[in-house]
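User: These chains co-purify. Model them together.
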Amino acid sequence: MRPFQYDRARTLTDAVQITQGEDAMAIAGGTNLLDLMKLQVETPGKLADINRVGLGEIADTDGGGLRIGALATNTATAVHPRVRADYPVLSRAILAGATQQLRNKATTGGNLCQRTRCYYFMNIDQPCNKREPGSGCGALDGIAKLHAVLGASGECIATYPGDMAVALSALDASVEITGSDGMERTIPVRDFHCLPGDTPWRDNVLEPGEIITAVTLPAPVGGTQLYRKVRERSSYAFALVSVAAIVEMQDGVFTRADLSFGGLAHKPWHDPRIAQALVGNAPSAQLFDRAADILLEEAQGHGENDFKIPLARRTLHAVLEQASENAA
Amino acid sequence: MSVHFKQDEPDTSNRLDDMKQGVIGAPLPRVEGMAKVTGTAPYAAEYPVENCAEGVLVTSTITRGEVTRIDKDSVLSMPGVIAVIDDERLITRPAQGTANEAPQQKPKSVSYWGQPIALVVAETFEQARDAAKHLKVEYREDEGAPLSPDAVEPEEQEGETVHQGDLAHAMAQAAHSVDVTFTTKGHSSAAMEPHAAIAQWDGECLTVHASLQMLNYNITELADAVGLAESKVRLISRFVGGGFGSKLGISEDVVSASLAAMQLGRPVRVVLSRQQVLQCIMRRSETTQRFRLAADENGRLTGFGHEALVSNLPGESFAEPVLQSSHFLYAGQNRELMLKLARIHRMTAGSVRAPGEAVGMPALEGAMDVLARKIGIDPVELRLRNIPEDNPEEGLPFSSHKLAECLRQGAEAFGWDPGPRKPRHTREGEWWVGTGMASAARVHNVGEARARVTLKADGTALVETDMTDIGTGTYTILAQIAGEMLGLDPDKVLVELGDTRHPRGSGSGGSWGAASTGSAVYVACTALREELARRAGIAEDELDLSNGRTQTGQTLTDLLGGKDMAREGHYEPGDIAADFTASGFGAFFAQVRVNRFTGETRVDRMLGAFGFGRVLNHKTARSQCIGGITWSIGAALTEALEFDPRDGHLVNCDLAEYHVPVNRDVPDLEVLMVEERDPAASPIQAKGIGELGMCGGAAAIGNAIFDASGARIFDYPMTPDRVLATMPVD
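Assistant: Joint model of the two components:
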């Protein structure tokens, strides 16, 4: 760990000011950042502790939705009565992630900013374009079991590891951001994370000095809400593939099918064409295959992670079968 | 006064059974349990030592070559940095179990990625860690180091080779035969407490708090490494947060802390990071194992072939002994066994819980399941039909043999369905449900051990030995043995372990600690009883002691007459090892479910039935079995070391990515202990327990996966990708 300056922000304005410098970072739960600092994957010169700036509230919005403060813990969000009643996919996704101890500390904003678990990113004695631009991608010809099959680039095949954001993507939630000039902006979760392209060091659209203040959920959509996470062990493991699904049926056909996927890409993966293909049709194995064809149209494995392609197809089948049974 | 006992003959007197205190076998809770769960039991790095400097190891970023320059100035001006230690005596690998000499030294010669090459010492841990990352090192790299076992011509381990009869002919003539090849991936011990040491040097003597399993060997290894007489070295390991083989030998933290303390003249602490523990201590070798099994029409084996390929670094003597129980477990007069070792430049391979059988048995028992299916008989019955009368290679008699009882009692307790049945017989929603079984076997080991038992004038007892308790319950069972022999409640017996100032015990490893050091305590207590009997005027074999009194009412304190009485017991395994084949045996039964969509496997329930000599404490023994079965679940489903194909470094080097089972993966486990009195095992009739629970268990799960889903997988661990690739289409 390198020496760093620690400042405790009292207000959001404080926090924004402190984190403006190039080597400044905000710290909340620290469940990811502290590990990365110990490994010197992250070496901030300045940390702004934002835990006391008062962003922990979970409150109803005027439009009937829910606003989850950036500092609300994963545990608080997962057990919140309105989340459980109206957005069960979110509760389920959060509870599928990490461990109880980690969820008690992890926050909404921090979780969105969680960095990849790529082995080569985590080891500073190995090449990684994300950590050290231009050094190469260690995973590309290395051990790539965890890695992306969608939207990867020759520069980086890392995945976004989180679960919560996959559910937020299916729910079409928005991220509220406050910037250095006090300007606020709101962007859809679906647009928050970036694909690696030729800027793999960029995980998301946050600019220096920008801080996530909240995530807002639209008015409840009802339906059957599932989160399915496939993994080798049944807890404390990142997804091989995960699916967040919000499905409604009427008269035997899908009327809603909002699906997002984890474990496949550098971001929670959402493809609106899948819903278009499903809605208006009756569930069938053929239909599920068509949805999987769309999802996996451009999927590309890297040897060790080739299995994710059939696994994603099969998991999509499992989720749609279960959801259509529940919804019918 | 020292009393020596060497076991050359079977002992059927079972003396412990004659004792009157009635605490042997009792399910007493661990005496140190409360201290551990309340955080008051100090582990190696936790001793408060004044003026202690902190050291962090610097590790190699090349695979093979030479360190040509270490630029100490690159860090010496950093805040708090005291020194860079690049002493030629630094060790680059841990010592193998019972090595009794320093392992590979000369840190400038690099033979694997992640090898320690220097130690940076600073005032604080954070300063040392930062400086270690900044130290400028120049290398001359040798290209082309072989990294994969199939990249080199392996060496035959000749002592393991058996050619008996004509296996090829037996295979050709067999009514039923299988010829299958299994693979297993590398494993890590992944003990919770990382390797750590605090070294103190007073100018003459070196004292080290460390986390080690076998102080009796470790003291020699450390003395050899740093060039001191053993009499000038003291090692202390009172509590060890798990070892599982990874702490058998002296490790890099211990020697580097010692050399730094000697050079700097102040205490130095070195704690390995989790990544370092995984990358520069021990791996269990990956294995490739071919089985040829030939059987007659009744399922009796006529031929048995087991050929295995394992790997290790050049210069290491250890070759994962996967054939160990294959030599005697099943009949078959025509036999071919061979072990080959590939010299490659991955980190050191060495002992990880149950070296040999941990991966040999799951593969063998998978092959036996294939054979049972082929013949169409109950896999339990196949095993029962192939239990040999005597060791099928050496002809030696078994000292005792509980496989048949374990198979039968285990099957009954589990509710085993003997079939016949086809895979995919039961589906519950998305899940295929099935059951599987496997035999367990693990050779019985004992080692020389000494312990001093002192009857205190106040009627309490003190047991002293440098034996360790690595979480197994040694403190407790030694108190039970002494208590039983001397007629004392175990509360009145204080056990002091883990300090080389005490007599040399056996150390903990190879499941031999309880039988070996327990026997030393027994020998000491027998000598004490003889003196007590003489004083009481009763023949020793008629002396009954309980609750501090003889049967005639004389108290121990009276007999002691205000003076302590001490005896040192010295137990030595004798010639008996040459007269018998001694092993623990058992059977595993598992019910699993396999998801028809995702290939995920979850264990519903599992039972292990074990015959492993006298049970000294039913609670700690059961805990050992549960731990072993939990390791079986990991070996079957999740645990795999992954090595980079270009530089050989271990990539999944933390507990988030090396997947040991979590609570949710482990259902209620049932343990059935089949008591036995093995007359050749040890004077206390105890055998090894700690390892048997994972010697075959993974096959019960693998075989259940086949029964459930129809996926016959020949590669452990059976992760969802492998299940999906093998499972028949719905």
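Chain A is about 25% helix and 20% strand.
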